[in-house]
Amino acid sequence: MLIRKLFRTAWKYKSQFLSMIIMIAIGIGIFLGFNIEWQSIESDTSAFFEETGYADYRLYAETGFSEEDIEKILKMDGVDDATRYLAVNVSIKDTKKSIALNVSENYTVSTMLVMEGAAYDDTLGGIWLSDKFAEANALSLGDTLIMTYKGIEISGEIIGLVKSGENMICVADANQLMPDYESFGFAYISPEKLEDALGGVFYPQINLISDMGKAELEEAVKDILGTTILVTSKEEHVAYAGAQSEAEEGKTMGSILPVLFLAIAILTMVTTMHRIAANEKVQIGTLKALGFRDRKILCHYTSYGLFIGLMGTILGVILGYGIAAIIISPTGMMSTYFDLPQWPLVMPSFCVPVIILTNVFLTLISYLSVKKMLKGTAADALRPYAPKAMKKSVLEKLPFWEKLPFGTKWNVRDILRHKSRSAMTLVGVVGCMLLLVGGLGMKDTMDRFMVMLDEEVNHYTTKINLSESADNNEIKILAESVEGDWLATSGISYEGETVTLEIYQADNSKIRFMNKENELMKLSDDGAYLCLRLADTAQIGDVIEISPYGSEETYEVMVAGYLRSLMTESIVMTDDYADSIGIKYHISSIYTDENSENIEDSSLIAGKQDKAMIMETYDTFMEIMNLMVMIFVLAAIVLGTVVLYNLGVMSYVERHRELATLKVLGFRDKHITRLLISQNIWLTVTGVLIGLPAGVGVLYILITSLVSEYELSLTIGVLTYLVSILLTFGVSLIVGWMVAGKNKKINMVEALKGAE
Amino acid sequence: MAIVEFKDVTRIYTSGDHEMKALDKVSFTLDEGKFVVILGPSGAGKSTLLNMLGGLDSPTSGTITVNGKDISTLTNNQLADYRASTVGFVFQFYNLIPTLTVYENVALVKEISRDAIDPKRMLAEVGLADHLQNFPSELSGGEQQRVSIARALAKNPKILLCDEPTGALDSETGVLVLKLLLSMARNYGKTIVIVTHNQSIAKMADVVIRVKNGKIRSCEEQSAPMSADEVEW
After folding, report:
1. Does A487 have pLDDT greater than 70?
2. Rounded to whole angstroms, what are the CA distances from A743 to A176, A402, A746?
3. Partner-chain contact A390 B137, CB within 8 Å
């Protein structure tokens, strides 16, 4: 019988029950969704890495590694496996497309997973091509592919379609943010095929699998090979680092948003359960008078909380897996970034206890709310719940208090009398505002980032990638002929970290530089510039020590200033300064306004990229960004609507009798609506005033937590403020109208009966 | 002069297929300045009658004329204005706004009534000059009902409508409140209509209307109404 009462009561308080179930479902849904997302990324990628022998370390030597080198490395203690490796970007003949050509000598490390076609065999002369690149370019098994590298043609039949851990995030270089399989892919060939094509082998890389620490390995390698070798760990490799940072983002999303929603759900639960218990007090008394034991009554009302929790959990789990599947699936958002063979969803083990605890907590809240009502004898319980008696607040001591219109006094006292309800409304508005400012501000920041990248920093049309063997003097002649700037990059060790040293000749302003304030700046020839991520490591005027990999030398460099490096973690200097301190470098690319068709191919040139094409690779990234913003905006609106409606209805029910009295006295409906709305407006104004800076703060934290990837500059447009404020007010006012509209239906006669 | 005229007033409440005739072709007139008691057992239709008169409800058929104006066909807003200007209510459970002080509860009517009487004066007349800054919850039942009377009269209405005004009070306090109500109404020359099932109150009235089963059983004028002190409670 009591179960039936549970469902009837749920129906009676349907808007409260529903709003709490929705809040809990959203909280648990987002919590599960993003936690499953990052856990799946970690599990799925590491399974794939395991399967394709993804290397823990990569050693680089510009002059290449010899057979003896690899033998020595293989014999080293702590090295599980190793292979000489080549990965170069080559062009597809007669197109602007290019692919990363991979050769793994021993084929035990950094291998591939054949999805279709022939298994790997080093005697086969064909090409194992990325299945995604093949699909995007309508290539299939049996087709012939002709690649050009330093003017040499390498051609072969496509004999396998593959995926590879090494190329899981298939981007040409650090300037490309997202894979674009139409223009860039990867392929494997056997060492023999490479030798046939080039007339010799050259492996500038050793990939190895080892549990050693980086420093330890560096020492060991130096001992064995007799020279400092550039060692990069998997944390510095795009595939592993990309997966890690996606997982990190998921962790952030999986903690901030759900905590907000669950906290609001639980707070709403506290106010609402208290209200329901208060309304049901007479019924509770009746049950008690009928002879039900306290325990039975407690159980019954406690089951409300459990019921709400369970319903919310069921919906939340469905929502969570739904969200995760939108991101993690063969056609999901993450599939445009990662190239994985399988996308199983994996839930982190801590999710189950968190969800159980949430339910226990919700049940406990309803238990405590009812417990309070059950106190005393049956006769006590039968008496209706009386709200706190009015007391004068400090505000009323203010001199102008008496002059306030009665509506204002009424609203102020009502807000103070129902503090938890008012606080909850405030939290709802603040949350709504925070999500809007955060979400839209994120988009502004990213848009600003794109503009800086596309129009301000990268002021060129074509990027020419130079071959490793090209001579600097010849390159400088080429650069001059196309009125281009050039860049030499190399890995250096600075304060124990691997950072990029970028040496620019930027007299033609094809590449420009930006300071912390986002203003264009000129590089002086007096010293080096640290990117903002390194700004804490040295003061301007300090002398720092850097040492290029592969050499014994250490250079002392004067810090001339800081600059905003959008992509790489780098130390930047002009060629004149580099020459003055005697650093050796090799120019790696030229930036020019010349169209790529007008630049003659030569042995110097390894490839050409249009900036427009590079920028296109950001499109997918921006699409994902926009989707996230949509989620934030939707979440904000749902949050605002649900919280405000629930509390609005509660406030309306509580003041039902007062409103009826006002109506009887002769107040028009509009007048009463205005009274109700004005309370909403005050709380909204306060909420907006708190939510605006809070949103900016949260966004700032989010952006600085992403700073290891990009140097974003917090940008929030006027439009974002405007839209956020208008949307928040819109939600608040529409909900306010919806609730206030109920006052037209007040049955004055009914409402006046019975004592308060 | 008749200030109130009910003509064939019928009120039918429907819920589902069920029809309930709360008032059945009720006709009567009331003269200005009289003290009228509407008497009847519960469910007789006396509250419905009062609600019609107070502009809280409209008749299904028939006309109600108050102060020369037909109120049976008014819109919601017109009804609100009618309530604001013409009638004052006193309820069994006082219906004060708990978050407003005694003074503010009465001053409230200044928002809707143009010729409202000074709230302080009203409250002084009901003997609450010392309680202006108290909240209703700090007052006794009798005091709360006095605030309610002050509020009803502060609008300066033509008619004072009271629904069991002493119903929630002990008899001693009830008599005091009733006395106050009557003397205030007489002083200000108001027509006063009290709905009750208390026979004793009827003895004080100028006119007694007895209602039963939605119909008026009798409507008699008492030429020599008793004073409150003469009535046995």
Report:
1. yes
2. 59, 28, 5
3. yes
